[in-house]
Predict the structure.
Amino acid sequence: MATGVGVAVSFLLLAVALCFVALVTSGTRMTTPGQSVSAPGGIAEPSADAKALIEELRLLRGDIGKLQEELRGASWNAGAAQGESEVSAPAVSGTAMALPAPVVGGAKPDDPAKRDGSLLLAVITNPAHFDERAHVRRFYQEAFPEERTKVRVVFVVGKNIYLGNPPKPLSAEKKAMMAKLTAESKEFGDIVWVDGRENLPHVGKATEKSAAWWQTAPSLGSYGHYCKSDDDSLIHISRLRRDLEAAGERTLYGYVAFRGWKPSYKFQACGIDVRPWAVEKALQGRDMGRNENCTDSVGPFPYAGGNLVCMGQVLARTLAGDSHFDGFIRKAHERNDNGMSCKNPFECASQPWETHMWHHEDAGISYNLFRSLVRNKVTGVKVVKIQPWVHIQHWLRDNITEPIPLVVIHNLKTLKLVKNVTADWRIDLGPWGPEEESFDCAACSKQWGWKWARTCASGDGDWCDALTEFDPNDFYTCCFKTYPTWVMQRMNAEEKARNEAERERRKQKEALKAAAAAAAAGLKKAPARLRRRR
């Protein structure tokens, strides 16, 4: 039976190839079904013949999926490509999700009235974190039942494993782990398999997965916003959804700083600060205290940390459909195939440019978004910065037991910490109105002093033929997410009381330690007869 199905799949693949040749020879660029294609000077619709061929491709792809379901299993083919092992992602069914197709060639935002939901949240996850996913999945379902029709949460894993160069055999332990993951995917239907590899040979372990998520996210459905988080973070999805709906679909939302980036496939960030003018000084060579040369870099651009970054649909579709971003990703895969492994950021950053690998995950995504928005002349972009300790906590603090406008808690590196947060977090929206959790928006030059930026004037893929300067205020508006002032006052008072109590505890401990040391010293100096009497 399996042999017959395999032959059938082969014939269907041949039919797909013939359809593809027909599309190419007709001069029509293939896209994801239902998407339009980019053309010089605007967005052109496919011809009637091309549409028919695209529909035939779609039907053939569905037939292949049905046939492959009969061959489906948790089989991993070691050495399927240089340095990787590939897993068969679950086919589309009622409970499992297939590998999404990239959005190619730029796509228009669709009709808001036909949305699948308000928010699609991806959690980039380690395949081995079965218990963490189970707990997080249950938390979101039980804590936010009112969001089920508005917010969809998925877990993102790579469909391949990097096995080294030259590749080593996949261990029995990893085979068993991925078989278990495939079963989990079929049971819950919330795992997205993307075209990225697990276990990359450098500190940017999730770069391929993260890029693949942003390239394919819009193909998973029509949502107002698309977000990415990590499996060591927990999100208040009700507050997040409310924020994003209020901000609009041209929004970049997260804990924002500013960065520079070296283009032309150098894969290296350069400069970072919450103040854009400080990065500007580095890029212009006016920061004499730096030990790196950023004068060849693009930026400053807004960079959202990976604990939570959200893009409105306009931004997500612009990035996913950018052929330059696709070229960046392809070259990054090639470098990972052939590059030398490195174990810390300094070692990775010191590698020669011709073999340098992409390890600044979130900075690389933010850089590509920046170039794509400016290249495609997307204006009216709203950058929303959530603020530390009020909206984002980088580790667990006692005040989550009180209502505060918290959006994300990060750095939950153990299952015990995850359980502690889900047990203690006061997730009610607090005794204040939504108007006190609004946005303070102004020109970026006024809000954060962002008055200057530069990008590449031309160049295919990530190549940069020349740099050109521009005013970022022509594209961006900058916003702080606000909060009730009395909440911050209360948090500061609680923090002060905790610090004072901790200082008092340490003083008492030191006093007891000193008294014990003095008693021991006095006993040592006493005459022998007194020591014996004691």
The first strand starts at residue 37 and ends at 39. Residues 1-107 have pLDDT under 50 and may be disordered. The radius of gyration is 27 Å. The first helix runs from residue 2 to 25.
